[in-house]
Amino acid sequence: TWDANDIGVVLIVGLGLALLVFQTASGKWKIAAGAIIAGIGATIARSGSRGTFVGLLVFGAALLFMLNRVSIAKRMIFLGVIVLGLIIEAPPGYWNQMKTIAAPKEDYNWSAKDGRKEVAQRGLGYMMSHPIFGLGIHNFWRAECIDGEKVETHVMGTGIRCTPPHNSYIEAGAEMGIPGLIIWSCLVFGGIESCRRLRRRLPRSWLKGDPEQRFLYEATMYLQLCFIGFSVCAFFLTFAWLDIIYMLAAYLGGLYIAIGEKLERSGQAAPQAAVPRRRLRGAPVDYRFATPPPLE
Predict the structure, then answer these.
(1) Which three-class secondary structure string do you get for the chain?
(2) The pTM of the whole model exceeds 0.85
(3) I want to staple 164 with a disulfide (CB 3.0 to 4.6 A). Which of 177, 178, 238, 277 is the partner?
(4) Mean pLDDT by 10 residues, the chain (296 residues)
(5) How far apart are CA 235 and CA 232, in angstroms?
(6) How far is Cα 134 from Cα 85, in angstroms, rounded to an integer?
(7) Do the beta carbons of residue 22 and residue 37 sit within 8 Å?
(8) Residue burial 104-138, b: 16+ Cβ < 10 Å; e: rest
(9) What was the pLDDT predicted at 178?
(10) Alpha carbon separation from 282 to 275, 276, 285, 286, 288 (Å, rounded)
(11) How far apart are CA 15 and CA 226, in angstroms?
């Protein structure tokens, strides 16, 4: 099952993909994508999730300021459709609930024993006490059940809540240690940077090229938005080991392959990857750019 924050990250990532379809499709597919975009805005409102609302704000800012290859009119239309769905479907009390984001110290998550602040602090403690290998995947809640401080201070008859970390970065660090946190963070933020670097290597003429060229070029922009949206929403939920970030990484890998094949068919150099050449001990590293072998 999914709670409000969980469905929020699915919606934010789906929003980036729906925008890609809207930008590159035509006819009934563009209409369908537009309806999905409005529906995502409406569903975000119905979820009542504050974490998703923060993710949407960052996503919207990135869309507005980073998609400089898309006309400002189209960017405003995108945002307008999302906001329209949000306003129409916002339930009573929704905007009052969103206002609490500006006063975090007044929220139960700031002071409660099992609030996000206390859980995050304990999670950092788990990571520092097991810095290399962590607690093990999906063991955070077990550590919460046997946490010495919680056991000593809990009220008899109320039980102890075996709470999840509610933060994917805390989850990765506590369950896989500092190396695991670094690797997982590289997967998230490396995806953002990889999309940017890949787009810089593509000919700008692809924006007005054939349908394949337009789709591949614009995919580097909207996939980057998906990674950005996930990086924000992941701060509010336990998603380190769930599917979405690995699906995004797979999409990025597929995008590299598709662009390389398209460049090869058009007689242009494929995207290059930096690889170190062999060297003598003590000599400086000599990097060369190697073109991937052609696809069979």
Answers:
(1) CCCHHHHHHHHHHHHHHHHHHHHHCCCHHHHHHHHHHHHHHHHHHHHCCHHHHHHHHHHHHHHHHHCCCCCHHHHHHHHHHHHHHHHHHCCCCHHHHHHHHHCHHHCHHHHCCCCHHHHHHHHHHHHHHCCCCCCCCCCHHHHHHHCHHHHHHCCCCCCCCCCCCCCHHHHHHHHHHHHHHHHHHHHHHHHHHHHHHHHHHCCHHHHHCCHHHHHHHHHHHHHHHHHHHHHHHHHHCCCCCCHHHHHHHHHHHHHHHHHHHHHHHCCCCCCCEEEECCCCCCCCCCEEEECCCCCC
(2) no
(3) 238
(4) 81 94 91 92 89 92 85 86 87 87 81 81 91 92 72 51 87 95 95 93 88 93 95 92 95 94 77 49 45 45
(5) 6
(6) 42
(7) yes
(8) eeeeebeeeebebebbbebbeebbeebeeebbeee
(9) 96
(10) 18, 14, 9, 12, 18
(11) 8
Q: 72-89 and 28-47 are packed helices; what angle lies between their axes, rounded to 10 degrees? A: 50
Give the number of other CB atoms < 10 A from CB of residue 32. 14
Exposure class string for 231-251: b at 16+ Cβ within 10 A, else e:
bbbbbbbbbbeeebbeebbeb
C-alpha dist (Å) from residue 252 to 71, 170, 223, 296: 24, 25, 8, 20
User: What pLDDT sits at residue 117?
Assistant: 86
Measured between alpha carbons, how far is 69 from 218 in angstroms, rounded to an integer? 9
What pLDDT does residue 171 have?
95
Q: Provide the CA 46 distance to its chain's centre, in angstroms.
A: 21
User: From CA 198, how far away is CA 216, in angstroms rounded?
Assistant: 10
- CA quadruple 225, 138, 174, 181: dihedral sign: negative
- 172 token code pair: 């990765």
